[in-house]
């Protein structure tokens, strides 16, 4: 066993076992189940911001983005611009009203705002798909990384990450998860910034020389590099597709949205997002640094593997091995933070789904939450083995695109337009989600010549489908004023009036479906 | 309720200081759409319209500024080529310019949104 393998195994084990131990051994105690879900609504902006940033800086931000910059150059710098820009849109349009609504998940919001079980079911389905896409991406990336740095089979990385994430999500509650994720963000920032500094200094001071001839990729099982829904395409339309997905899709990421409710009020939630943005701005300075180093020292290496290959290419020997171990630990902190957040969000979204069955089986709400978390993790694990392995950024951007074409219109119109009707929302969700599914399936399954002949929406779905979903929601709402839910003014008042006004009868405590106006 | 009828010649004037920017009716709803079954009208409704209009206006301005950042970054490579700053210069500007601009935009938006809310609270307390 080489020192690189030992260092990597040590780094990964410290992160996984340390995180699981933090969650399992010393879980916080809560007075109520709601406090379990929302950390007693007492998380300050900086700690919540760090946790949000930790969930957002997933495998894509830590590994794939730098790899794409190394492969394609300047056009991929846009991805980090778009990723941070998405949070500005969340801040502008969504965060404070959503927190003030008092609803906990996106499904709860849809039910409360539109009073329609159909819309709730559609939103739950879409949130589940997006969550699964995110989870599968993290588990596949964990497999690729562990295989790359230690030679262990890829399934081992996915299993290790899933087990640690489930352990934390099941036992810790939002309070401990928040603290752990905040810690993981600072760990990731420290590791990736420190390693970048060492590698950059080694290059500038002549301690690492670029290869005279291109070195073949040292990846035992190369991942496929291709384009999916515009992602990975360096053309202007490919970049536009990613920017639209990032800008409009960030607001629908389930693991980010449930974080809003750990804040005490709308103002604090808004400040949490600004704090997260400040941290993301600092973090997204790093992928271009690794991208430049990768273009020089590791040309042609697949996107997801480039960052981890870099230290050994630049500084062969103990220093390079130690840096590889550190980067592997940082990568696993990213997989774990995001997986944990997604599992908590999926558990909260799916757990109210079968109350009748749960009553018969005498399962408590927390029991249903735990069952949903375990079920989601197992499903994602099986999917990660069954699904074809590509660069994880393709999968994650697909989730962003789906969110931009479905959840974004519901949130924006639901928060700002009182004319949104239940039928309008349902129609928009079905058209947006259906079009994305069909276009992506056609792109993936049809022959290349046919895809090229079918036109731009096939290759770049998000910029075309998101406006269509908005238009459908508005048009159908205008045609069905009878299905505009009752009490819209009160709902808008709850979302938009500041807490200081102390409106009588407005209860903004985070509400679960059982407490909502259903 | 008095049985005396009067002729209505114009829309009611919003309460002073609320800054209500006209009616915010559901676009597809009939004339009675604001007559909520849960009965929310009067000063509260005016307040709501005022604050939603203010926040929407602010959101529009911030979104326009965000679009400006994105368009600026989009044309930067072409401008860099034209200005002769070369590929390294373009890389450097694209990496270093947008992040602080995003942060500045977010902080500015936060302050303005909170100011709108503070003014709304003050108006509510002063004017009832």
Please describe what this structure looks like.
The complex is a heterodimer of chains A (about 525) and B (about 130). Chain A has about 525 residues and is mostly helical. The relative contact order of chain A is 0.19. Chain A contains 24 helices and no strands. Chain A is globular. Chain B has a domain at about 60-125. Chain B is built from three helices and no strands. In chain B, helix 1 packs antiparallel against helix 2 (about 85-95) and helix 1 (about 45-85) packs antiparallel against helix 3. The longest helix of chain B is centred in the middle third of the chain and has 41 residues, at about 45-85. The interface between A and B is large, with 56 and 54 residues. Chain A: This is Cation/acetate symporter. Chain A: Its main location: membrane. Chain A: It comes from Streptosporangium canum. Chain A: GO terms for molecular function: acetate transmembrane transporter activity; symporter activity.
Write the layout of secondary structure elements.
The complex is a heterodimer of chains A (518) and B (128).
Chain A lengths: L2 H23 L7 H6 L6 H12 L2 H14 L4 H17 L1 H7 L4 H9 L2 H34 L3 H51 L31 H14 L4 H4 L8 H18 L2 H12 L8 H9 L3 H33 L4 H6 L4 H22 L5 H14 L1 H10 L5 H24 L2 H7 L1 H4 L1 H19 L8 H9 L22
Chain B lengths: L42 H41 L2 H11 L1 H30 L1
Helix pairs in contact in B: 1-2, 1-3
């Amino acid at each position: 066993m080489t020192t690189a393998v030992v260092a990597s195994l040590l780094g990964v084990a410290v992160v996984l076992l340390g995180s699981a131990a933090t969650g399992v051994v010393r879980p916080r105690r809560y007075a109520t189940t709601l406090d379990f879900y929302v950390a007693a609504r007492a998380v300050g902006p900086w700690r919540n911001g760090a946790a949000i940033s930790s969930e957002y800086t997933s495998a894509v931000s830590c590994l794939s983005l730098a790899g794409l910059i190394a492969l394609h150059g300047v056009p991929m710098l846009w991805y980090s611009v778009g990723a941070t820009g998405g949070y500005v849109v969340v801040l502008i349009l969504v965060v404070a009203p959503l927190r003030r609504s008092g609803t906990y998940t996106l499904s709860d919001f849809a039910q409360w705002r539109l009073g329609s079980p159909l819309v709730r079911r559609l939103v739950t389905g879409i949130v589940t798909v997006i969550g699964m896409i995110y989870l599968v991406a993290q588990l596949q990336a964990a497999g690729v990384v562990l295989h790359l740095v230690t030679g262990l089979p890829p399934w081992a990385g996915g299993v290790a990450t899933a087990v640690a994430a489930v352990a934390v999500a099941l036992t810790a509650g939002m309070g401990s998860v928040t603290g752990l994720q905040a810690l993981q963000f600072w760990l990731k920032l420290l590791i990736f910034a420190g390693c970048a500094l060492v590698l950059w200094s080694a290059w500038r001071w002549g301690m690492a020389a670029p290869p005279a001839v291109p070195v073949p990729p040292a990846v035992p099982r190369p991942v496929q590099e291709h384009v999916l829904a515009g992602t990975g395409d360096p053309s202007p339309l490919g970049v536009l597709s990613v920017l639209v997905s990032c800008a409009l899709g960030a607001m629908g990421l389930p693991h980010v949205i449930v974080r809003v409710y750990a804040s005490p009020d709308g103002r604090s939630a808004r400040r949490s997002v600004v704090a997260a943005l400040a941290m993301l701005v600092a973090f997204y300075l790093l992928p271009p640094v690794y991208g430049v180093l990768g273009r020089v020292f590791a040309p042609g290496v697949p996107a997801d593997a480039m960052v981890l290959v870099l230290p050994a290419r630049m500084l062969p020997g103990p220093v390079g091995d130690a840096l590889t171990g550190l980067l592997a630990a940082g990568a696993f902190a990213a997989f774990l933070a995001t997986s944990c957040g997604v599992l908590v969000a999926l558990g909260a979204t799916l757990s109210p789904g079968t109350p009748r069955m749960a009553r018969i089986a005498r399962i408590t709400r927390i029991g249903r939450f735990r069952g949903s978390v375990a079920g989601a993790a197992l499903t994602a694990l099986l999917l990660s083995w069954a699904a074809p392995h590509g660069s994880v950024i393709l999968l994650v951007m697909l989730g962003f695109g789906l969110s931009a074409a479905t959840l974004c219109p519901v949130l924006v119109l639901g928060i700002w337009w009182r004319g949104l009707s239940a039928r309008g929302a349902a129609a928009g969700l079905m058209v947006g989600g259906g079009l994305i599914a069909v276009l992506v399936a056609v792109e993936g399954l049809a022959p290349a010549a046919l895809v090229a002949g079918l036109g731009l929406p096939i290759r770049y779905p998000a910029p075309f489908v998101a406006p269509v979903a908005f238009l459908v929601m508005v048009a159908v709402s205008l045609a069905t004023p009878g299905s505009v839910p009752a009490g819209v003014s009160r709902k808008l008042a709850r979302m938009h009036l500041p807490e200081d006004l102390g409106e009588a009868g407005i209860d903004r405590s985070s509400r679960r479906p059982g407490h909502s106006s259903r | 309720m008095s049985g005396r009828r009067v002729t209505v010649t114009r829309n009611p004037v919003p309460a002073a200081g609320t800054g209500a920017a006209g009616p915010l009716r559901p676009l597809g709803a009939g004339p009675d759409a604001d007559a909520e079954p849960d009965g929310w009208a009067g000063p509260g409704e005016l307040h709501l319209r005022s604050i939603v209009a203010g926040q929407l206006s602010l959101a529009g301005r911030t979104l326009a500024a965000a679009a400006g950042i994105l368009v600026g970054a989009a044309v930067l490579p072409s401008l860099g080529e034209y200005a002769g700053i070369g590929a390294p210069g373009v890389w450097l500007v694209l990496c270093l310019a947008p992040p602080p601009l995003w942060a500045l935009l977010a902080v500015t938006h936060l302050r303005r949104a909170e100011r709108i809310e503070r003014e709304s609270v003050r108006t509510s307390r002063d004017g009832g």
